[in-house]
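Suppose a colleague, Dr. K., hands you the sequence of a protein chain of 429 amino acids and asks what its three-dimensional shape might be. Before reaching for any lab equipment, you can write down a predicted structure in C-alpha coordinate form. Begin with the sequence itself:
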Amino acid sequence: MNYLIRQATVLDAQSSWYLKPVDIRISQGIITEMGSALDLHASETEIASTALYVSQGWMDLQATGGYQGSEHREDLKSLESASLSGGFTDICLHSAFSPYVWHAAWVNGFVNSSKAYAVRMHPVGKIGTDTSGQFSEMADMYAHGAVAFSNYKTPITDSGLLHRIMQYAQNHDLPLFLFCNDSTLSHGGLMHEGAFSTILGLRGIPALAEELHVQQILKIAQELNARVHIQQISSAQSLVQIREAKASGLNVSCGVSAFHLVSTDADLTEFNTSLKVMPPLRSSNDRDALILGLLDGTIDVVVSDHAPLTSEEKTVEFDQAEFGMINLQTVFPQVVNAMQRHFKSYTEGLAAMIPALTTNPRKLIHIKAPLIQEQQPASLTLFDPTIQWTWTPDYNLSKSSNSPYFGTTFTGKVIGVFTKGHYWPQHTI
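The predicted structure, expressed as C-alpha coordinates, is then:
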Protein backbone atom coordinates (compact mmCIF):
# COMPACT_ATOMS: atom_id res chain seq x y z
CA MET A 1 0.00 0.00 0.00
CA ASN A 2 1.05 3.57 -0.71
CA TYR A 3 0.20 6.58 1.43
CA LEU A 4 0.40 10.35 1.47
CA ILE A 5 0.60 11.94 4.91
CA ARG A 6 -0.85 15.41 4.58
CA GLN A 7 0.63 18.41 6.43
CA ALA A 8 2.14 16.71 9.45
CA THR A 9 4.41 18.75 11.71
CA VAL A 10 7.70 16.88 12.07
CA LEU A 11 9.09 16.16 15.54
CA ASP A 12 12.46 14.70 14.58
CA ALA A 13 15.30 17.08 15.43
CA GLN A 14 17.51 15.39 12.79
CA SER A 15 15.07 16.23 9.99
CA SER A 16 15.37 19.32 7.81
CA TRP A 17 11.60 19.64 8.31
CA TYR A 18 11.84 19.79 12.10
CA LEU A 19 8.88 21.70 13.59
CA LYS A 20 7.53 22.35 10.09
CA PRO A 21 4.42 20.91 8.42
CA VAL A 22 5.16 18.65 5.46
CA ASP A 23 3.55 16.14 3.12
CA ILE A 24 5.20 12.72 3.27
CA ARG A 25 4.85 10.12 0.52
CA ILE A 26 5.35 6.51 1.58
CA SER A 27 5.64 3.73 -0.98
CA GLN A 28 6.01 0.11 0.07
CA GLY A 29 7.14 1.16 3.53
CA ILE A 30 9.77 3.66 2.35
CA ILE A 31 9.64 7.45 2.64
CA THR A 32 10.03 8.40 -1.02
CA GLU A 33 9.23 12.11 -1.02
CA MET A 34 8.76 14.99 1.40
CA GLY A 35 7.54 18.43 0.42
CA SER A 36 4.77 21.01 0.41
CA ALA A 37 1.48 20.38 -1.41
CA LEU A 38 2.41 17.04 -2.97
CA ASP A 39 -0.08 15.61 -5.45
CA LEU A 40 -2.14 12.65 -4.27
CA HIS A 41 -1.61 9.71 -6.63
CA ALA A 42 -4.47 7.41 -7.57
CA SER A 43 -2.75 4.48 -5.85
CA GLU A 44 -2.33 6.34 -2.57
CA THR A 45 -4.42 6.63 0.58
CA GLU A 46 -4.36 10.07 2.17
CA ILE A 47 -3.78 10.42 5.92
CA ALA A 48 -4.85 13.72 7.45
CA SER A 49 -6.07 15.20 10.72
CA THR A 50 -6.90 18.60 12.18
CA ALA A 51 -3.53 19.03 13.91
CA LEU A 52 -1.37 16.18 12.64
CA TYR A 53 2.11 15.53 14.02
CA VAL A 54 4.66 12.87 13.09
CA SER A 55 7.65 11.54 14.98
CA GLN A 56 9.84 8.49 14.91
CA GLY A 57 7.98 5.43 16.13
CA TRP A 58 7.69 5.47 19.90
CA MET A 59 9.63 3.14 22.19
CA ASP A 60 8.45 2.01 25.62
CA LEU A 61 11.29 1.01 27.95
CA GLN A 62 9.05 -0.68 30.52
CA ALA A 63 6.15 -3.01 29.86
CA THR A 64 5.26 -6.54 30.94
CA GLY A 65 3.24 -9.34 29.38
CA GLY A 66 3.67 -11.81 26.56
CA TYR A 67 6.31 -13.98 28.18
CA GLN A 68 5.88 -17.69 28.82
CA GLY A 69 3.82 -18.18 31.95
CA SER A 70 1.88 -14.92 31.73
CA GLU A 71 -0.06 -15.40 28.49
CA HIS A 72 -3.37 -15.43 30.39
CA ARG A 73 -2.68 -11.82 31.37
CA GLU A 74 -1.29 -10.73 28.00
CA ASP A 75 -0.09 -12.74 25.03
CA LEU A 76 2.15 -11.45 22.26
CA LYS A 77 -0.76 -10.82 19.89
CA SER A 78 -2.71 -8.69 22.36
CA LEU A 79 0.52 -6.96 23.38
CA GLU A 80 1.16 -6.12 19.73
CA SER A 81 -2.37 -4.73 19.30
CA ALA A 82 -2.26 -2.59 22.45
CA SER A 83 1.21 -1.29 21.58
CA LEU A 84 0.24 -0.25 18.06
CA SER A 85 -2.92 1.40 19.36
CA GLY A 86 -0.81 3.37 21.82
CA GLY A 87 1.62 4.50 19.10
CA PHE A 88 4.51 2.19 19.97
CA THR A 89 6.67 0.52 17.33
CA ASP A 90 9.10 -0.82 19.95
CA ILE A 91 8.62 -2.11 23.48
CA CYS A 92 11.08 -3.41 26.05
CA LEU A 93 9.61 -6.34 27.94
CA HIS A 94 10.47 -6.92 31.58
CA SER A 95 9.88 -10.15 33.43
CA ALA A 96 7.27 -9.71 36.14
CA PHE A 97 6.27 -13.37 36.46
CA SER A 98 8.31 -15.46 34.01
CA PRO A 99 11.49 -17.08 35.39
CA TYR A 100 12.94 -17.68 31.93
CA VAL A 101 14.44 -14.30 31.04
CA TRP A 102 17.84 -15.00 32.57
CA HIS A 103 19.04 -17.63 30.11
CA ALA A 104 20.73 -16.78 26.81
CA ALA A 105 19.07 -19.62 24.89
CA TRP A 106 15.60 -18.46 25.93
CA VAL A 107 16.41 -14.85 25.05
CA ASN A 108 17.65 -15.92 21.62
CA GLY A 109 14.48 -17.94 21.02
CA PHE A 110 12.24 -15.07 22.04
CA VAL A 111 14.07 -12.60 19.80
CA ASN A 112 13.58 -14.91 16.82
CA SER A 113 9.93 -15.77 17.51
CA SER A 114 8.92 -12.16 18.17
CA LYS A 115 10.09 -11.07 14.71
CA ALA A 116 6.72 -12.25 13.38
CA TYR A 117 4.98 -9.30 15.07
CA ALA A 118 4.66 -5.75 13.80
CA VAL A 119 5.99 -4.33 17.05
CA ARG A 120 9.67 -4.86 17.81
CA MET A 121 9.77 -6.61 21.17
CA HIS A 122 13.07 -6.23 23.00
CA PRO A 123 13.68 -8.57 25.97
CA VAL A 124 15.09 -7.08 29.15
CA GLY A 125 17.18 -9.78 30.78
CA LYS A 126 16.82 -10.50 34.45
CA ILE A 127 19.71 -9.68 36.76
CA GLY A 128 18.49 -12.73 38.64
CA THR A 129 20.19 -12.41 41.99
CA ASP A 130 19.57 -15.30 44.33
CA THR A 131 20.12 -15.84 48.03
CA SER A 132 23.80 -16.63 47.46
CA GLY A 133 24.37 -13.23 45.89
CA GLN A 134 25.06 -14.64 42.43
CA PHE A 135 23.63 -12.97 39.35
CA SER A 136 22.89 -14.09 35.82
CA GLU A 137 25.26 -14.27 32.85
CA MET A 138 24.21 -10.88 31.59
CA ALA A 139 26.95 -10.54 28.98
CA ASP A 140 25.88 -13.84 27.40
CA MET A 141 22.23 -12.76 27.30
CA TYR A 142 23.24 -9.40 25.82
CA ALA A 143 25.11 -11.18 23.03
CA HIS A 144 21.92 -13.12 22.25
CA GLY A 145 19.56 -10.14 22.08
CA ALA A 146 18.73 -8.81 25.54
CA VAL A 147 18.84 -5.02 25.36
CA ALA A 148 19.19 -4.22 29.07
CA PHE A 149 19.09 -5.84 32.51
CA SER A 150 16.72 -5.36 35.40
CA ASN A 151 15.01 -7.16 38.23
CA TYR A 152 11.82 -5.32 37.25
CA LYS A 153 10.43 -4.10 40.60
CA THR A 154 12.44 -6.27 42.94
CA PRO A 155 14.93 -3.80 44.42
CA ILE A 156 18.56 -4.68 45.06
CA THR A 157 19.51 -2.88 48.24
CA ASP A 158 22.57 -4.84 49.38
CA SER A 159 25.42 -2.37 48.78
CA GLY A 160 28.07 -5.01 48.13
CA LEU A 161 25.87 -6.82 45.63
CA LEU A 162 24.89 -3.56 43.93
CA HIS A 163 28.56 -2.63 43.65
CA ARG A 164 29.43 -5.96 41.98
CA ILE A 165 26.48 -5.80 39.59
CA MET A 166 27.21 -2.22 38.56
CA GLN A 167 30.89 -2.99 38.09
CA TYR A 168 30.06 -6.04 35.96
CA ALA A 169 27.65 -4.00 33.83
CA GLN A 170 30.25 -1.27 33.42
CA ASN A 171 32.97 -3.73 32.39
CA HIS A 172 30.72 -5.24 29.71
CA ASP A 173 29.03 -1.97 28.66
CA LEU A 174 25.58 -3.28 29.58
CA PRO A 175 22.53 -1.04 30.11
CA LEU A 176 21.46 -1.53 33.72
CA PHE A 177 17.95 -0.58 34.88
CA LEU A 178 17.42 -0.38 38.64
CA PHE A 179 14.22 0.03 40.64
CA CYS A 180 14.49 2.11 43.79
CA ASN A 181 12.64 1.07 46.92
CA ASP A 182 14.06 0.37 50.35
CA SER A 183 11.70 -2.44 51.32
CA THR A 184 12.64 -2.17 55.00
CA LEU A 185 10.81 1.17 54.96
CA SER A 186 8.03 0.30 52.53
CA HIS A 187 7.16 -3.26 53.60
CA GLY A 188 3.40 -3.75 53.80
CA GLY A 189 2.67 -0.33 52.33
CA LEU A 190 -0.28 0.08 49.99
CA MET A 191 -0.11 3.72 48.85
CA HIS A 192 1.91 6.90 49.33
CA GLU A 193 2.47 7.78 52.96
CA GLY A 194 0.80 11.13 53.57
CA ALA A 195 -2.44 12.83 54.50
CA PHE A 196 -4.56 10.62 52.25
CA SER A 197 -3.13 7.34 53.55
CA THR A 198 -4.02 8.54 57.04
CA ILE A 199 -7.55 9.53 56.00
CA LEU A 200 -8.11 6.23 54.19
CA GLY A 201 -6.56 4.13 56.93
CA LEU A 202 -4.09 2.47 54.57
CA ARG A 203 -0.50 1.72 55.43
CA GLY A 204 1.77 4.14 53.61
CA ILE A 205 4.89 3.80 51.48
CA PRO A 206 7.14 6.74 52.39
CA ALA A 207 8.90 8.69 49.66
CA LEU A 208 12.01 8.19 51.78
CA ALA A 209 12.05 4.51 50.76
CA GLU A 210 12.70 5.58 47.18
CA GLU A 211 14.93 8.54 47.98
CA LEU A 212 17.39 6.62 50.17
CA HIS A 213 17.78 3.92 47.52
CA VAL A 214 18.34 6.53 44.82
CA GLN A 215 21.04 8.06 47.00
CA GLN A 216 22.68 4.67 47.52
CA ILE A 217 22.76 3.90 43.80
CA LEU A 218 24.10 7.34 42.91
CA LYS A 219 26.89 7.01 45.48
CA ILE A 220 27.98 3.65 44.10
CA ALA A 221 27.74 4.91 40.51
CA GLN A 222 29.92 7.87 41.47
CA GLU A 223 32.50 5.61 43.09
CA LEU A 224 32.67 3.38 39.99
CA ASN A 225 32.13 6.16 37.45
CA ALA A 226 29.42 3.82 36.16
CA ARG A 227 26.41 4.38 33.95
CA VAL A 228 23.04 3.54 35.47
CA HIS A 229 19.37 4.05 34.64
CA ILE A 230 16.82 4.43 37.43
CA GLN A 231 13.64 2.89 36.03
CA GLN A 232 10.93 5.00 37.62
CA ILE A 233 10.97 7.86 40.03
CA SER A 234 7.92 9.21 41.80
CA SER A 235 9.32 11.62 44.38
CA ALA A 236 10.30 15.28 44.02
CA GLN A 237 13.34 14.70 46.23
CA SER A 238 14.51 11.78 44.08
CA LEU A 239 14.36 14.17 41.16
CA VAL A 240 16.49 16.73 43.02
CA GLN A 241 19.16 14.11 43.69
CA ILE A 242 19.27 12.99 40.06
CA ARG A 243 19.34 16.56 38.78
CA GLU A 244 22.32 17.31 41.03
CA ALA A 245 24.06 14.08 39.99
CA LYS A 246 23.68 14.94 36.32
CA ALA A 247 25.00 18.46 36.93
CA SER A 248 28.09 16.94 38.57
CA GLY A 249 28.77 14.85 35.46
CA LEU A 250 27.46 11.49 36.65
CA ASN A 251 26.22 9.26 33.81
CA VAL A 252 22.77 8.64 35.25
CA SER A 253 19.37 8.60 33.58
CA CYS A 254 15.86 8.04 34.85
CA GLY A 255 12.31 7.40 33.75
CA VAL A 256 8.80 8.18 34.88
CA SER A 257 5.58 6.33 34.20
CA ALA A 258 3.06 8.40 32.26
CA PHE A 259 0.36 7.97 34.89
CA HIS A 260 2.59 9.58 37.54
CA LEU A 261 2.33 12.75 35.44
CA VAL A 262 -1.45 12.93 35.85
CA SER A 263 -2.69 10.99 38.89
CA THR A 264 -1.97 11.48 42.60
CA ASP A 265 -2.69 9.83 45.93
CA ALA A 266 -5.83 11.98 46.18
CA ASP A 267 -7.37 9.83 43.44
CA LEU A 268 -7.40 6.76 45.69
CA THR A 269 -10.34 7.85 47.83
CA GLU A 270 -12.63 5.32 46.12
CA PHE A 271 -10.15 2.46 46.70
CA ASN A 272 -9.83 1.72 42.97
CA THR A 273 -7.37 -1.18 42.93
CA SER A 274 -6.25 -0.28 39.40
CA LEU A 275 -4.68 2.85 40.94
CA LYS A 276 -2.61 0.66 43.25
CA VAL A 277 0.77 0.90 41.54
CA MET A 278 4.45 0.70 42.45
CA PRO A 279 5.97 3.17 42.98
CA PRO A 280 2.76 4.59 44.42
CA LEU A 281 0.95 7.65 43.16
CA ARG A 282 2.32 10.44 45.30
CA SER A 283 1.27 14.00 46.16
CA SER A 284 0.30 16.72 43.71
CA ASN A 285 3.57 18.48 44.58
CA ASP A 286 5.50 15.38 43.55
CA ARG A 287 3.49 15.10 40.33
CA ASP A 288 4.13 18.74 39.42
CA ALA A 289 7.85 18.32 40.12
CA LEU A 290 7.96 15.26 37.85
CA ILE A 291 6.39 17.21 35.00
CA LEU A 292 8.99 19.96 35.38
CA GLY A 293 11.71 17.31 35.55
CA LEU A 294 10.55 15.92 32.23
CA LEU A 295 10.50 19.37 30.67
CA ASP A 296 13.99 20.34 31.86
CA GLY A 297 15.53 17.04 30.77
CA THR A 298 16.25 15.61 34.20
CA ILE A 299 13.83 12.80 33.38
CA ASP A 300 14.97 11.08 30.19
CA VAL A 301 12.12 8.74 29.31
CA VAL A 302 8.39 8.26 29.79
CA VAL A 303 7.27 4.65 30.15
CA SER A 304 3.86 3.01 30.08
CA ASP A 305 4.65 0.69 32.99
CA HIS A 306 2.03 -1.54 31.36
CA ALA A 307 1.23 -4.31 33.88
CA PRO A 308 -1.68 -6.53 32.79
CA LEU A 309 -3.28 -8.45 35.65
CA THR A 310 -6.26 -10.77 35.92
CA SER A 311 -9.53 -9.93 37.64
CA GLU A 312 -8.58 -12.43 40.36
CA GLU A 313 -5.49 -10.34 41.03
CA LYS A 314 -7.29 -6.99 40.94
CA THR A 315 -10.99 -7.43 41.78
CA VAL A 316 -10.29 -8.06 45.45
CA GLU A 317 -9.92 -6.02 48.62
CA PHE A 318 -7.45 -3.16 48.19
CA ASP A 319 -4.86 -4.64 50.53
CA GLN A 320 -4.98 -7.97 48.65
CA ALA A 321 -4.71 -6.53 45.12
CA GLU A 322 -1.52 -6.76 43.10
CA PHE A 323 0.27 -3.56 42.07
CA GLY A 324 -0.09 -2.39 38.47
CA MET A 325 -2.29 -1.11 35.66
CA ILE A 326 -2.55 -1.51 31.90
CA ASN A 327 -1.41 1.67 30.19
CA LEU A 328 -0.01 1.18 26.68
CA GLN A 329 -3.03 2.76 24.99
CA THR A 330 -3.27 5.77 27.30
CA VAL A 331 0.32 7.06 27.50
CA PHE A 332 -0.01 9.79 24.88
CA PRO A 333 -3.06 11.56 26.33
CA GLN A 334 -1.38 11.44 29.74
CA VAL A 335 1.65 13.19 28.25
CA VAL A 336 -0.63 15.76 26.58
CA ASN A 337 -2.38 16.38 29.90
CA ALA A 338 0.97 17.06 31.57
CA MET A 339 2.12 19.22 28.67
CA GLN A 340 -0.97 21.42 28.78
CA ARG A 341 -0.10 22.49 32.32
CA HIS A 342 2.93 24.40 31.02
CA PHE A 343 2.52 25.06 27.29
CA LYS A 344 -0.08 26.87 25.23
CA SER A 345 1.61 25.85 21.99
CA TYR A 346 1.21 22.18 21.09
CA THR A 347 4.32 22.26 18.92
CA GLU A 348 6.50 23.74 21.66
CA GLY A 349 5.20 21.32 24.27
CA LEU A 350 5.46 18.23 22.10
CA ALA A 351 8.97 19.19 21.00
CA ALA A 352 9.96 19.18 24.67
CA MET A 353 8.27 15.89 25.57
CA ILE A 354 8.27 13.58 22.55
CA PRO A 355 12.04 12.80 22.70
CA ALA A 356 11.24 10.93 25.94
CA LEU A 357 9.31 8.47 23.72
CA THR A 358 11.58 8.43 20.66
CA THR A 359 15.30 9.20 20.70
CA ASN A 360 16.06 9.07 24.43
CA PRO A 361 14.91 5.50 25.13
CA ARG A 362 16.78 4.19 22.11
CA LYS A 363 19.94 5.99 23.18
CA LEU A 364 19.80 4.27 26.58
CA ILE A 365 19.83 0.80 25.02
CA HIS A 366 22.26 1.58 22.18
CA ILE A 367 19.70 1.40 19.37
CA LYS A 368 19.90 3.88 16.51
CA ALA A 369 16.78 6.01 16.16
CA PRO A 370 15.00 5.93 12.78
CA LEU A 371 15.09 9.08 10.66
CA ILE A 372 12.26 10.98 9.01
CA GLN A 373 14.04 11.50 5.72
CA GLU A 374 13.60 10.50 2.10
CA GLN A 375 14.73 6.97 1.21
CA GLN A 376 14.48 5.87 4.84
CA PRO A 377 12.17 3.08 6.06
CA ALA A 378 8.99 4.49 7.56
CA SER A 379 9.07 3.90 11.31
CA LEU A 380 6.61 6.59 12.32
CA THR A 381 3.95 7.47 14.84
CA LEU A 382 1.20 9.86 13.73
CA PHE A 383 -0.82 11.70 16.36
CA ASP A 384 -3.14 14.63 16.95
CA PRO A 385 -2.95 16.35 20.36
CA THR A 386 -6.29 18.13 19.88
CA ILE A 387 -8.65 15.17 19.48
CA GLN A 388 -10.90 14.45 22.44
CA TRP A 389 -12.00 10.87 22.99
CA THR A 390 -13.33 8.68 25.76
CA TRP A 391 -11.38 5.61 26.84
CA THR A 392 -13.83 2.73 27.25
CA PRO A 393 -13.49 -1.06 27.53
CA ASP A 394 -14.58 -1.27 23.87
CA TYR A 395 -11.25 0.29 22.84
CA ASN A 396 -9.16 -1.86 25.17
CA LEU A 397 -7.01 -4.29 23.17
CA SER A 398 -5.22 -5.82 26.15
CA LYS A 399 -6.35 -9.20 27.45
CA SER A 400 -6.53 -7.58 30.88
CA SER A 401 -8.78 -4.76 32.00
CA ASN A 402 -7.04 -3.25 35.03
CA SER A 403 -7.22 0.37 33.88
CA PRO A 404 -8.45 3.04 36.30
CA TYR A 405 -9.19 5.42 33.44
CA PHE A 406 -12.20 3.77 31.77
CA GLY A 407 -14.81 6.47 31.25
CA THR A 408 -12.19 9.24 31.15
CA THR A 409 -12.36 11.75 28.31
CA PHE A 410 -8.81 12.34 27.13
CA THR A 411 -7.26 14.92 24.83
CA GLY A 412 -4.64 13.58 22.42
CA LYS A 413 -5.02 10.61 20.09
CA VAL A 414 -2.72 8.34 18.12
CA ILE A 415 -3.78 8.35 14.45
CA GLY A 416 -1.65 5.48 13.21
CA VAL A 417 1.72 3.78 13.09
CA PHE A 418 4.07 2.87 10.24
CA THR A 419 6.33 -0.05 11.06
CA LYS A 420 7.96 -2.97 9.26
CA GLY A 421 6.59 -1.88 5.89
CA HIS A 422 2.94 -1.58 6.94
CA TYR A 423 0.54 1.08 8.16
CA TRP A 424 -1.60 0.40 11.21
CA PRO A 425 -4.43 2.94 11.45
CA GLN A 426 -6.08 3.31 14.83
CA HIS A 427 -9.70 3.70 15.83
CA THR A 428 -11.43 6.77 14.48
CA ILE A 429 -13.11 8.55 17.37
